[in-house]
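re: ur msg from earlier - yeah i can do the D-malate complex, just paste it... oh wait u already did. ok heres what im feeding in:
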Amino acid sequence: MTLIKRKTGNDLRVDLKHLTISYNDNGPEDAGVIIFIHGFPLNKSMWNKQAEVFKETCRVIAYDIRGHGHSDEGEEDFSIEFFVNDLIAFMDALEIDKATLCGLSMGGYIALNAVENYPERFDALILCDTQCTEDSIEAKEKRLATIESIKKDGVEKYADASLKKLFAPISFAGKKAEVAAVREMIINTSEKTLSNTLLALAGRKESCSKLSEIKIPVLIIVGKEDQITPPEVSRTMNNEIHNAELYILEHAGHLSNMESPFEFNKQVKIFITVNKLV
Ligand code: MLT
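and the outut:
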């Protein structure tokens, strides 16, 4: 097999079978690989504060899930399984055999499903502000109502309503740049991707019953004020996974890596060092 020459930098593009994925790839060639997977409806730039730090010692990759950021949307309906297939095809295209996955919220759903179905491709897992349950009937109905309200009232109104749930109250004063950046990410996501992804989230399967089968080290991080996936949910996952540890971040909501980057990075650094992942 001929090895492809690795490209480094930001906003790189790689062609998978039916679509092009946009990604950032920085850090030493022969270091351990961490792949960061963003939440909904954000993009790879939500991990910039992690990439800045970890590229010194790790190969740090953050990519845009199909339809988000600068990745193509493709023609098909979305599903978490589909996103996992994209992730594996993306790793294959970059010739990455094994990586540590770090996913936030929807990124965590993808990471959990990927580890469940392709355990040999991952050496550790970092689950941030996420959950293993499927949507309740009420949650599914809410997603359908959200699709309708985006159609009726537009993306800007949706973005403003979402921000209130994504950030802890304190972040609206102390993290203005991050709040503005997240608003931009949301309003730059197409209506088609928003509704396609909302349907994918509503249709996702639970992964709680598979947590005890996870064999690799797992770090779970959650913002103490996360309103979407509150700390209790992380505590439950921590109890189910054999080799897991949980860290609850003060002064952070659902976007804990952006709201409390210093503490977030410190916990990830300890985890990757103790588990010799770099
Ligand atoms: C996310 O941040 O990815 C979403 O809140 C996930 C969800 O709505 O289930």
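cool cool. The chain has a mean pLDDT of 97. ping me if u need the other ligands too
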